[in-house]
Specification:
Belongs to the phD/YefM antitoxin family. This is Antitoxin. It comes from Caloramator australicus RC3. It is a single chain. Helix 2 links the parallel strand 1 and strand 2. By secondary structure, the chain is of the alpha+beta class. The chain has a domain of 54 residues: YefM-like fold (3-Layer(aba) Sandwich). A three-stranded mixed beta sheet has the order 1-2-3.
Length: 114
């Protein structure tokens, strides 16, 4: 078990890069590794983590995950605060607005939902 921790620590330490190393010409090599091998680095200044270098694809994935989490939290909050006595069933909404289920099915085929 301790062997696993040593490997993880070694991997972690290999991902630390100082601001001085970046300014000494290592930036292009690091960026190449990030783009090609999807590696990640932690930039350290005065022995403190200050920034992270990740690929643009990973950054976009993180932003999307953050947005998904925020939407989930909003939905949970709305459900928690909703009054089920005022809820209207799906069937009642269709009837009220004279919408046929088949029309919804056609729209669902035409619209792309992520």
């Amino acid at each position: 078990m301790s062997g696993v921790a040593k490997i993880e620590l070694k991997d972690f330490l290999s991902k630390l890069i100082s601001v001085s190393d970046l300014s000494r010409g290592m930036a292009s090599k690091i960026i190449q590794k990030v783009n090609k091998d999807k590696e990640q680095y932690i930039v350290v200044k005065n022995n403190k983590p200050e920034a992270v270098i990740i690929s643009v694809d990973e950054y976009i994935e993180l932003l999307e995950a953050k947005e998904d989490l925020q939407l989930l939290q909003m939905a949970e909050e709305r459900i928690k605060n909703s009054n089920l006595n005022q809820a209207i069933s799906h069937e009642n909404v269709l009837e009220r607005y004279n919408i046929k289920e088949e029309s919804l099915d056609e729209l669902m085929e035409a619209v792309e939902i992520e």
